[in-house]
Write a structure and sequence with these properties.
The protein is mostly helical and about 130 residues long. It contains four helices and three strands. Strands 2-1-3 form a three-stranded mixed β-sheet. Strand 1 (about 65-70) and strand 2 form a beta hairpin. The chain is globular, with a radius of gyration of 22 Å. The N and C termini lie far apart (about 85 Å).
Length: about 130
C-alpha cells in the first residue's frame, strides 16, 4: 500500500509540474490584479515605438497625453498635469508591482510615456495655431 501511495504522489507531482509548462508565455508573469487586456497593452508598449505611436495618434487627432498610475497619477515627461480629460491612462501601471516582470513593464511604460508626452508637448507648442 505504501508503494502505491508513493506512486500516486509521484504521478500527481509530475502532473502538476507538467501543467506549469502549459501556461501561455505572454501571461506567465501576469499578476492577478492586472487584467489580461491591460497586461497585453503593457507587453505591446514594451515593444512599441512611442514616436511612431504618437504620429498615428496625431493622424487621428488624438492629442491626449499618456498617464501612469503610481503613488499618484502622473504624466511622465511633463511637469504640470493637464486636465484629466486630456490624458489617456496606461492601465496596468502601479506603484504596487507583483513580479519582476510587472515592475520591468511598468518602468518601460513610464519611459514610453515620457518620450511620447515630451514629443506631444513639442508638437502642440509648434502647431497650436493650426489646431485652434
Amino acid at each position: 500500500m505504501e508503494s502505491r501511495s508513493r506512486h500516486f504522489f509521484a504521478i500527481l507531482f509530475i502532473f502538476v509540474l507538467g501543467g506549469c509548462d502549459q501556461r501561455d508565455p505572454q501571461n506567465a508573469s501576469r499578476p492577478n490584479s492586472v487584467s489580461a487586456a491591460d497586461w497585453a497593452e503593457l507587453l505591446r508598449i514594451d515593444q512599441a515605438d512611442p514616436l511612431a505611436d504618437l504620429q498615428a495618434a496625431i493622424r487621428t487627432n488624438d492629442f491626449r497625453f499618456l498617464g501612469t498610475y503610481g503613488v499618484g497619477f502622473s504624466t511622465p515627461g511633463i511637469a504640470n498635469l493637464p486636465p484629466l480629460t486630456n490624458i489617456n491612462p496606461i492601465k496596468g501601471t502601479s506603484d504596487a508591482f507583483e513580479s519582476e516582470e510587472h515592475l520591468r513593464l511598468i518602468l518601460e511604460a513610464t519611459k514610453y510615456a515620457e518620450i511620447y508626452n515630451r514629443a506631444l508637448k513639442s508638437y502642440l507648442n509648434t502647431n497650436r495655431s493650426e489646431l485652434d
